[in-house]
Design goal:
- 24% of the residues lie in helices and 20% in strands.
- It is of the alpha/beta class.
- It folds into 2 domains: 198 residues, 3-Layer(bba) Sandwich (FAD/NAD(P)-binding domain), CATH 3.50.50.60; 177 residues, 3-Layer(bba) Sandwich (FAD/NAD(P)-binding domain), CATH 3.50.50.60.
- Strand 14 and strand 15 form a beta hairpin.
- Helix 1 packs across helix 10.
- The protein binds flavin-adenine dinucleotide (FAD).
- The site of flavin-adenine dinucleotide (FAD) has 31 residues, from helix 1 and helix 2.
- This is Putative flavoprotein.
- GO terms for molecular function: flavin adenine dinucleotide binding; monooxygenase activity.
Length: 434
């Protein structure tokens, strides 16, 4: 058993951001990961995945992307390389292959409260625990699919998908039309597979608007910095679907949109949400037109608000108009699919994720598994969390946003243990543009 001041659980970008700030403050700590640095990018992403955020939006405490293509989109492997270099730059004390099995109050009655962190590589006792295991605990499989006997059809969740060649033969029913579902459907279609997408609630987004990447707009209109206290419905805000976007390294296609209309034109069939798979029949909702209509209306309203911003700040003369994305037009869709007759061999579920912390033996989670927190401070004294979706700002779950939550968590940790606050708050270079 090792006694230490702080244990950080998770060596993704969020855990490393915390480690950098603790290192700068001279605080003893260890970063435990069940795998290696950036493990989810190595083991839970498909081979062709590129970040959908442009490289300039890859800022961590004391570090920012300085490569040749700030407007490009990093491949997952390149991003892991950057995380490794970042960790090496300050000697992050990462202990890999240490799966955390339990975080619980440590026994004993000393004055200082301690936590017991039991792992596959030994036990640590710590005054502070920072949970940085990511916003994507476990893939969500809709109730009508979970535990269903779908016969000889394979059920694959998006975190297990690698490339078209690794799927079984036949057509694919993709469940979910957010970023993951659309990117995978696009790749399968290009590989010659018959693809059907069961379209759930989604957020349609063009790659560019008036010549600028959509993340330029999200940042410069203040949307990424909007806090949970500023939104009318925090529960809905935290349940927002991911943006229907793709990042590509191929410059010709980098600016092209990925949307349901384009996929449909290339032969992908669109159907409504899957309610259940019974035997070999998928029961579908008759909601396709309503779902795509709602997404198109929301997109239109969003682009209107960007155009109002252009007028307000007087950029109208400098930015050209761009045509609005065309609404997706859908024919009537079936409400039942016979998977056998359709030749569908795989149901690929890309329906998002749910929180999952089975090792957390502290009364700090809601009934849905979400860790209760305010600015990363949980109800258990000395226990913190970083990297959750919309933890405080809208960009909390993005790579670029973790630095803000890491800074407030480390400030609180230092102040509560009598070490003042962060010696060096975020520099201007690391703060988003005004
Ligand atoms: C498909 C996909 C694409 C994304 N693309 C982008 C993008 O382009 N841009 C962007 O900004 N964001 C993107 N995100 C969102 C987000 O940035 C990533 O999910 C990111 O990986 C989250 O970083 P993190 O450090 O919070 O957690 P993770 O990267 O998930 O790191 C958590 C770490 O904790 C470890 N861990 C988990 N459980 C345990 C345990 N019990 N014991 C020990 N270690 C444990 C894991 O091994 C992992 O290394 C994407 C998400 C997904 C799913």
């Amino acid at each position: 058993m090792t006694t230490i001041d702080t244990v950080v659980i998770g060596a993704g970008h969020a855990g490393l951001a915390v480690s950098k700030l603790l290192t700068d403050a001279g605080r003893e700590h260890v970063v435990l990961d069940r795998g290696r640095i950036g493990d989810r990018w190595r083991t839970e992403r498909w081979d062709s995945l590129h970040l959908l955020t442009p490289s300039w939006m890859t800022r961590l405490p004391g570090w920012g992307y300085s490569g040749p293509d700030p407007d490009g989109y990093l491949g997952a492997g390149s991003f892991v390389g950057l995380l490794e270099a970042y960790a090496a730059s300050f000697g992050a004390p990462v202990v890999g292959r240490a799966t955390v099995h339990e975080v619980a109050p440590a026994p004993g009655r000393g004055a200082a409260r301690r936590y017991r962190v039991a792992t596959s590589r030994g036990t640590w006792h710590a005054r502070h625990v920072v949970i940085a295991t990511g916003p994507h605990g476990t893939p969500y499989v809709p109730a009508g699919l979970a535990g269903t006997d779908i016969g000889r059809v394979d059920l694959v969740t998006s975190n297990r998908y690698r490339n078209p060649g690794r799927l079984g033969a036949g057509g694919v029913l993709v469940v979910g039309a957010s970023a993951s579902g659309l990117q995978i459907a696009d790749e399968l279609n290009r590989a010659g597979r018959d693809v059907t997408i069961a379209v759930g609630r989604h957020t349609r987004m063009p790659r560019r608007h008036r010549g600028l990447d959509i993340f330029w707009w999200l940042e410069n209109t203040g949307r990424l910095a909007r806090t949970i206290d500023e939104v009318p419905d925090p529960v809905a805000a935290r349940a927002e679907t991911s943006l229907q976007l793709v990042g590509r390294d191929d410059h010709e296609r980098a600016t092209q949109d990925l949307d349901l209309g384009g996929l449909q034109a290339r032969g992908v069939r669109l159907v409504g949400r899957v309610e259940a798979v019974e035997g070999r029949t998928a029961r579908l909702r008759d909601d396709l037109a309503a779902t795509v209509g709602a997404a198109d209306a929301a997109l239109d309203g969003f682009l209107d608000s960007l155009d109002r911003f252009v007028e307000r700040v007087g950029l109208g003369n400098q930015l050209w108009d761009s045509p609005r994305p065309r609404p997706v037009s859908v024919a009537s869709a079936p409400t039942r699919l016979d998977l056998g007759a359709e030749g569908i061999g795989t149901v690929l579920v890309a329906a998002g994720y749910r929180p999952h912390h089975p090792w957390l033996r502290l009364p700090i989670t809601d009934s849905d598994g979400t860790i209760r927190q305010r600015r990363g401070v949980t109800p258990a004294e000395g226990v913190y969390v970083v990297g959750q979706r919309f933890q405080h700002r809208r960009d909390s779950g993005y790579i670029d946003g973790a630095r803000h939550d890491a800074a407030s968590v480390v400030s609180h940790l230092l102040a509560s243990s009598g070490s003042g606050s962060l010696a060096a708050p975020l520099s201007d270079a690391e703060e988003p543009a005004a």
